[in-house]
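Predict the 3D structure for this chain.
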Amino acid sequence: MLHVLLSQADSYHDVVDHLSTAGARVTLIGPQSRRHAIPGKRAILQAMFSRNLLRARQLWTESDRVLVVGWQALPILLLIRLGLLRRPAKLLVMACFIHGARARSVVNRAWRLLRFPGLGFVTFSLGEARNLTEVVGIDPAMVHFHLWRQKLGGQTPADQISDDGYIFTGGFSNRDYNLLLSATSGTGVPVVVVASQRNDIDPLLNPDSTIYRDLPELEFERLLAKSKMVAMPLKSRGEACGQSVLLRVLRNEKPLVATRHEAIEAYLGSDYPGFVAYDDAAAMRQAVERALADTDYRLSLVTAIRRAAAQLAQRSTPGQEVEQFLLA
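Done. Predicted structure below.
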């Protein structure tokens, strides 16, 4: 039998709903409340010790297969190690994102300590997969790469997509907004930033910038859909990042200039013409100015975006892919 353990209510519908329809038993082991903003480190740590973890007792047998979504995977693995939970035939961990080197080192030690022959991972970036196989020592056959794609809400109707002349940038994880603001300062083109309260942003770096914090996804995408272009300034570190914004770029067919990061390369290909080197404000400025002024270049970006969207649409659904990983 298949089991799905959720750290957060009402999440990963594209995977969970498919598995549930296929007969999997879904159990919430995290907090009951639904989060609409990205949780911080403290909230994640508190959720890891939710009383709902007790729901996992006697939940599966040694022949069952289990998918654990989120950071409750760590206490679940600890309880298995201590013999307080049965060890299933296969247990896959999904959606544990880390961007800091220190946190990655700590978690790597935990994975090594708690691993067992049936432990595997569903990763959202090739860097995450390499870390698990090369550093942690997980069997490569038990590490499954999955192009993250969920059905995102807030889609802007096609007849409301426009070019209002500004640069849009948004998202939370692994962003370097100050680099982008520095790179675009003096261009005379407005920059609209939609970030989190936890992002460090200096608005004085670009007087033509407007900064919003923690907007609902409907408003987030509306601002993206009405932009002239999208810029994605990523830091070099980190694993899965930028995918949700990229999916909105794909469905709105916006030209994108982005820091080269393998999490984004997996969707667009390494030859995407809008990539720039990380931590290079001059390269970012050059690419943004070219995308604003050069119609042919901007069209080449849009053409590549459309091609990537078409290729993504040909893949199996997220639920089908994860089901295949569980049954492999």
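The radius of gyration is 21 Å.
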